[in-house]
Structure formats: C-alpha cells, structure tokens
C-alpha cells in the first residue's frame, strides 16, 4: 500500500449519521512493509488503539514479530493475523504464538483462513486453528475472526451464503466455550445496507458476535478498484464503478464518509445492533487514513478517541 498523504478537513457531523461517534475506538490494519515507512505511529493514533498486522503470504515471521514489538512498545493493542492456509502445522502455530508473546506480550489475534486458495499444510480454516486450543492455553484475551457481508467464494464457490453462515454459527458456538472475547472483523465494502442486512441475518441465525465493519480508507479510485477486485469485494463494488463514470469525481480521492455515516445512523437508531465499530483498511496510505479519522473525531490524531 503506497503512502498517499491526504488530509480531510474537519466538518460538522452530517445529518444522517455522526461519523465521529462511529469511529471512536476504531482499529486500523498495517503491514510490516508499510509500517516501516511510518516514523512515529504515536503521532497518528491514540494510545491503546488496536492495530492489526496483516500477514501477507511470503512475509517472514521475523518481520511480523518485529512490527508487533515496535507497536506494542509504543503503547498500542497489537493484533497480528494468523492465516491458517500458510501455517504448516500445529508446531509452527505454537512457535508463532511463542515468538509474539516473547517479543511483544501479544494476547490478541485475528484468526482467518488467509489469502491463498490452497492450504500449504495441515490447516484450511480459522476453525481448525481455534480447535488446536493453543490460543486458549497461551492466554489470549481477544480472538477476532473474519466476517463476510458480501459472501466469500473461498468458502462457498457458488457465491451463496449457506457455508459462510455455517461457519459463523460454529464461531458463535466456539465463543461460548472460550474465555477470550470474540468478535468479527469484516472485509471492506462500499455500501452500508448490505452490511446491516447481513448482521440481521447473523442474529436470525443465532450469531451474536460483535461486528467491526471494514472501511476502505481514503485512496485514489483506481487504487481502490484494484484492491476491491483482488480482495473479492461483492456487489457494493458498483459504488466505485458508478463513481468512475463521473468525470468530476474520477480524479478526487475516495473517502468512506457515506458508508460510515449510514452505519453511524443505523447504530444510533438501533443501539442493540451487532455493529460495534469500524476497522479501517488504509489502502491509500496509513497517514491518509489517520488524518481522515482525526478530522471526523475533531481532535489532533494522537488525541483521537479510542
């Protein structure tokens, strides 16, 4: 993710939703190679902000651990990815957990299948990683899992939802037999309504895990479309396609104001919603996303609410 400085001006809360309230306590995702370009994370994010570290296939575990050590030292709540399909076996998983804990005291993890189509070893899904019991034995306090508001063809090749919902019910059941706090973190999308509808279907299926909604941070339209196609974003991609047809908007950076405001409005009107907050993917650069969030929070970036 190339760094693309872009500062969004502070603005009044829109009538259809208080974005600042929705962003309070938001998390953000980084990769080791983008994190190393940031001189001082404490100038961008509030102390205690949860920062996920994405483990992209091919990234050495040493780089992941070094990034975790740095962020933990700076006072952030660090949540590295554990992608099942690139973990060879239970011994490797135990080794990763030990490395993270020895270097940075890590007790949080995002457990997911991972971005490769075929498993490299013994594991194919997040559920298999959780079933090892290693996270519980290591004293993990927070276990997040992936949520798929627009489906996931890696789980259900037909594009349907049955397999995805089965997995969600399994994760709900697992949450009831672990001491760790569990939640879902979703892929980014460009419309609020499909996310809202999905959370209601989760509830109807007996799934009550808090949902941290993925938002694509400010970025050039071309960059977003590239990431959206690569990450398998579903029907909400039409929002970007429509924007690309408007010449007046083509050269302007996209910001997730509309989807964030609609989610904020829904959360205000439905305080019992499963939607717990926002998780920002800084696709146009870490600083760009930090500035965008700070603008809505109405404070300097390092004083933004958690």
Name of the level-1 CATH class? Alpha Beta
Provide mean pLDDT, rounded: 85
Shape: globular
- Strand order within the widest sheet? 1-2-3-4-5-6-7-8
Q: H/E element string? A: HEHEHEHEHHEHEHEHHHHEH
In DSSP terms (H or I, runs of 4 or more residues), the helix count works out at 13
Instruction: Quickly give the structural class.
Output: alpha/beta
Low-confidence stretches: 1-16, 299-306
Beta strands, count:
8
Approximate strand percentage = 15-25%
Return Rg in Å.
18 Å
Core attributes:
single chain; 306 residues; alpha/beta; TIM Barrel; 8-stranded parallel β-barrel; 39% helix; globular; disordered N terminus; disordered C terminus; FAD-linked_oxidoreductase-like
Quick overview of this protein structure:
By secondary structure, this protein is α/β, with parallel strands linked by helices.
Report on the structure:
The chain has helices at 19-23, 32-35, 61-73, 90-104, 126-131, 134-137, 162-175, 193-204, 221-230, 238-244, 247-250, 257-269, 286-297, and strands at residues 27-30, 50-53, 77-83, 108-112, 142-147, 181-188, 211-216, 275-281. It is globular and about 45 Å long. 39% of the residues lie in helices and 15% in strands. Strands 1-2-3-4-5-6-7-8 form an 8-stranded parallel barrel, surrounded by 4 helices. By secondary structure, the chain is an alpha/beta fold. The model is unreliable at 1-16 and 299-306 (pLDDT under 50). Keywords: Oxidoreductase. It comes from Roseivivax lentus. GO terms for molecular function: oxidoreductase activity.
